[in-house]
């Protein structure tokens, strides 16, 4: 990737809120970058037709805030683009976040930072969010989309890490290893076999058979386990696994119940007293999904009463913001209970892959408007503008998804040569990309002005 502000390409943009007023400097456009257009050329092209690098006005003015110890692979890739990158090892509380997010064009977070409506309203220039993890429940996705802010995540780069952790926990729980380990550290030798079992032949019940659940299915089967799963959609069972049609059907059959659903309105408090009572006497619960899926007081009661044989819990309804902070939970001190600080996806392999994957998605969105992979946004991409196409521009238009918009844009572009164009919608918003050739600097300004003044405009960018 060529770096920094030597890149002789520019962009112009504006954004309006739903009620109409212009938000100054919004959407990936640095302060003071009025749509004044001059052209310089990229290096000469020989041989292959290279893709032209489209970038914002001055990459050095693009501000990126990375929280929660986002991996160095991402920091390096974003700095390599010439962006200003500020990093924090921890999550920020609402007040600090509101102060910090005010003037950034892009924010990168992991599972802890809450990007609520209130926080997003304070983000005057934000154009894109990177969740350097799988879960996106920490972001108000719909509200972000309504402001033209695209959200990207890494859908499966840490799935294997979670699945491996769960396999380890199944063995540890089955052998009461947490308790034995604690005793040894306390100087107590306690050699027991009572209620310790092999996992071979036991039944694992997987709730949520997505990327993690299905990976776990394969690993568990290879350890000799019988695999049942429950999911809201019918899915192809891998190996000899079997889909059951009710949660109760799974809870009453499984020796190990393991949760791999996203946090949604339907999954919040999914496992409470009623569900725990349905689980077999002496069975185990594992939660490496989200803390809100399980009602912690009910779980603590089931563990202390001996109804459950143990539990492994990686995620909690309230998690400390930073390493070293105090952790408290009703689960502390429960028998045969493994507690881990949300480390399911925390391996070198996963973090490094996520850093590369999400930073590339952010760079593509900032520099060339590509929204493929966005979780809250219409997914649009166009074949690259070639490096030898001197007077071509790319229009990126995020707009309200209402009838008549395309006709309006077609009218604005009627006299121009639209090389290629694609648009898609998702819910209340739509996104159009169009590459237009043979335009003069004055025409670029006109196109930009006319498009950004349309009543349906959310964000307009022109890249070249
Ligand atoms: N502990 C950790 O460090 C990590 C935790 N996670 C959590 O694990 C979750 C699952 O991850 P993936 O497998 O990648 O997600 P996924 O989206 O691939 O799979 C989720 C599955 O759950 C199913 N589902 C949704 N609602 C359901 C319901 N009410 N009942 C039953 N099934 C339901 C879906 O149909 C889907 O098949 C993530 O959303 C995230 O919250 C993910 C990575 C690391
Ligand atoms: O990927 C996810 O959804 C996770 O829960 C992992 O979160 P983290 O990146 O460790 O904050």
UniProtKB/TrEMBL annotation:
InterPro entries: ACT-like_dom_sf, ACT_dom, D-iso_2-hydroxyacid_DH_PdxB, D-isomer_2_OHA_DH_cat_dom, D-isomer_DH_CS, D-isomer_DH_CS1, D-isomer_DH_NAD-bd, NAD(P)-bd_dom_sf
PROSITE patterns per the UniProt record, alphabetical: ACT, D_2_HYDROXYACID_DH_1, D_2_HYDROXYACID_DH_2
Listed Pfam families: 2-Hacid_dh, 2-Hacid_dh_C
Pathway: Amino-acid biosynthesis; L-serine biosynthesis; L-serine from 3-phospho-D-glycerate: step 1/3
Top-level EC class as recorded in UniProt: oxidoreductase
Keywords: NAD, Oxidoreductase
Reactions performed catalytically: (2R)-3-phosphoglycerate + NAD(+) = 3-phosphooxypyruvate + NADH + H(+)
Protein's UniProt keywords contain Oxidoreductase: yes
Any GO BP: L-serine biosynthetic process
UniProt domain ACT: residue ranges: 394-464
EC number(s) stated in the UniProt entry for this protein: 1.1.1.95
GO molecular function, one term: (S)-2-hydroxyglutarate dehydrogenase activity
UniProt cross-references to CDD domains, sorted A to Z: PGDH_3 (cd12176)
Family: Belongs to the D-isomer specific 2-hydroxyacid dehydrogenase family.
PANTHER family to which the protein is assigned, alphabetical: D-ISOMER SPECIFIC 2-HYDROXYACID DEHYDROGENASE CATALYTIC DOMAIN-CONTAINING PROTEIN-RELATED, D-ISOMER SPECIFIC 2-HYDROXYACID DEHYDROGENASE FAMILY PROTEIN (AFU_ORTHOLOGUE AFUA_1G13630)
Name of the protein described by the UniProt record: phosphoglycerate dehydrogenase
Annotated source species: Linnemannia hyalina
Lineage: Eukaryota, Fungi, Fungi incertae sedis, Mucoromycota, Mortierellomycotina
């Amino acid at each position: 990737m060529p770096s920094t502000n030597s890149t002789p390409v520019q962009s112009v943009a504006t954004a309006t809120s739903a009620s109409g007023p212009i938000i100054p400097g919004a959407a990936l456009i640095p302060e003071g970058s009025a749509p004044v257009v001059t052209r310089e050329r990229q290096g000469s092209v020989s041989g292959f037709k290279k893709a032209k690098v489209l970038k914002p006005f001055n990459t050095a003015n693009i501000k990126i805030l990375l929280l929660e110890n986002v991996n160095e692979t991402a920091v390096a890739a974003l700095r390599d683009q010439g962006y200003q990158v500020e990093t924090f090892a921890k999550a920020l509380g609402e007040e600090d976040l509101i102060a910090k997010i005010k003037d950034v064009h892009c924010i990168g977070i992991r599972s802890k930072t809450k990007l609520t409506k209130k926080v997003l309203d304070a983000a005057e220039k934000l154009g894109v969010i990177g969740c350097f993890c799988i879960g996106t429940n920490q972001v108000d996705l719909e509200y972000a989309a309504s402001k033209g802010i695209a959200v990207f995540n890494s859908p499966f780069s840490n799935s294997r890490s979670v699945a491996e952790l769960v396999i380890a926990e199944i063995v540890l729980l089955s052998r009461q290893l947490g308790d034995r380990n604690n005793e040894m550290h306390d100087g107590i030798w306690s050699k027991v076999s009572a209620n310790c079992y092999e996992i071979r032949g036991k039944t694992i019940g997987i709730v949520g058979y997505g990327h993690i659940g299905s990976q776990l299915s394969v690993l568990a089967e290879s350890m000799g386990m019988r695999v049942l799963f429950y999911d809201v959609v019918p899915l192809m069972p891998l190996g000899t696994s079997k889909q059951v049609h009710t949660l109760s059907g799974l809870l009453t059959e499984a020796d190990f119940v393991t949760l791999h659903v996203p946090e949604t309105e339907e999954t919040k408090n999914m496992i409470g007293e009623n569900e725990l009572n349905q689980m077999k006497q002496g069975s185990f619960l594992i939660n490496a999904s989200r803390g809100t899926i399980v009602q912690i007081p009910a779980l603590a009661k089931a563990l202390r009463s001996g109804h459950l044989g143990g539990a492994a819990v990686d995620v909690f309804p309230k998690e400390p913001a930073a390493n070293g902070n105090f952790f408290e939970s009703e689960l502390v001190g429960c028998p045969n209970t493994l507690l881990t600080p949300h480390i399911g996806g925390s391996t070198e392999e996963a973090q490094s892959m996520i850093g590369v994957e999400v930073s590339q998605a952010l760079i593509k969105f900032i520099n060339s408007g590509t929204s493929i992979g966005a979780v809250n946004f219409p997914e649009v991409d166009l074949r690259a503008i070639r490096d030898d196409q001197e007077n071509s521009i790319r229009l990126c238009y995020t707009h309200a998804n209402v009838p008549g918009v395309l006709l309006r844009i077609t009218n604005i572009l009627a006299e121009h040569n639209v090389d290629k164009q694609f648009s898609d919608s998702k819910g209340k918003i739509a996104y159009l990309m169009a590459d237009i050739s043979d335009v003069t600097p004055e025409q670029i300004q006109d196109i930009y002005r006319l498009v950004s003044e349309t009543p349906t405009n959310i964000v307009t960018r022109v890249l070249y």
